[in-house]
Amino acid sequence: MSDPVLETRGLSKRFGALEASKSVSLTLCPGEIHALIGPNGAGKSTLIAQIAGALKPDNGSVHLCGEDITHLSTPARARAGLARTFQVSQLAMQDTVLQNALLGATATNGRPFRLWGRPVDTLRQRAQAALTRVGLAGQAATPVSALSHGQRRLLELAIALTLEPKAFLLDEPMAGLGSEGSQNMTDFLATLRTQAPILLVEHDMDAVFALADRISVLVYGEVIATGTTDEIRANPVVREAYLGQDA
Ligand SMILES: Nc1ncnc2c1ncn2[C@@H]1O[C@H](COP(=O)(O)OP(=O)(O)OP(=O)(O)O)[C@@H](O)[C@H]1O
Fold it and tell me: pTM, whole model, 2 decimals?
């Protein structure tokens, strides 16, 4: 297998007596979608926060394209090519779709709102290209508050795209979407992997099993299994701990 784009080595995090991450080692390889699943409270968001730089691990390290990025801040990791979308929407509701996308593009400058060093037109083109990619080019002048929930999720992905990422961290992109919205998002993510590999945290098992090349199962902060969709479906420990007998 080729070298991983993103790798965690022995990430550990405690909240008091609770071990929310127990020496988690994962890889994300070029072109793949690696899904991270597990019951509520298993530690998925805690792990994503450590990878994105929002939470400092007690032990372990995070590597992007072979570089140790554990010491970098969240914005520095984003500039290095780690694009994260959030479980809870963080869009600027009163601003337009294009303004929100531009914010993502300017963030790669390291100097939000100060566009020295990079022509504004280039940033605008990059933002517009990302909106076209997610199908929101026609809504560029629309305030975010007027978008549907599904469109807002797509805008979050457009902002991630403006970072020209090396890897995507997607935390529950299907959350709050109806079945049609989930299907649209599933179709979109299937195309997105050609741009950069995706570490996908998701509760929607239909989407996970449709999209993932590999799945890791987290239970009580520990990866209890990693494998292909067929291997995970057939794993008796996973069925017992999470998927149930019907999977
Ligand atoms: N800042 C914190 N302080 C104390 N405990 C925390 C903190 N953040 C998370 N936890 C605890 O760590 C455990 C893992 O939480 P986490 O949110 O990472 O799980 P999760 O798998 O993402 O859950 P969900 O699927 O419900 O989003 C939980 O028991 C949670 O209560």
Answer: 0.88
Q: Which parts of the chain have pLDDT scores under 50?
A: 110-116
Q: What size, in residues, is the chain?
A: 247
Measure the CA–CA gap between 175 and 154, rounded to whole angstroms: 12
- For residue 119, report the phi and psi dihedrals to the nearest 5 degrees: -60, 140
CA–CA separation, 206 vs 196, rounded Å? 22
Domains, the chain, with CATH or none: 1-81+165-246 (3.40.50.300), 92-164 (no CATH)
Mutation choice for ligand 1 from 18, 205, 242, CB with most ligand atoms inside 8 A: 18
Closest CA to 55 of 102, 119, 12: 12
What ipTM does the predicted assembly reach? Answer: 0.96
For residue 48 the two structure tokens come to 């994503």
Helix axes 179-192, 149-162, angle to 10 degrees: 10
> Distance, CA 143 to ligand 1 centroid (Å)?
33
Residue 107 has a pLDDT of: 61
pLDDT digits (tens, 9 = 90+) for 107-138: 655 444 444 455 567 788 889 999 999 899 99
Q: For ligand 1, is residue 38 a contact (CB within 6 Å)?
A: yes
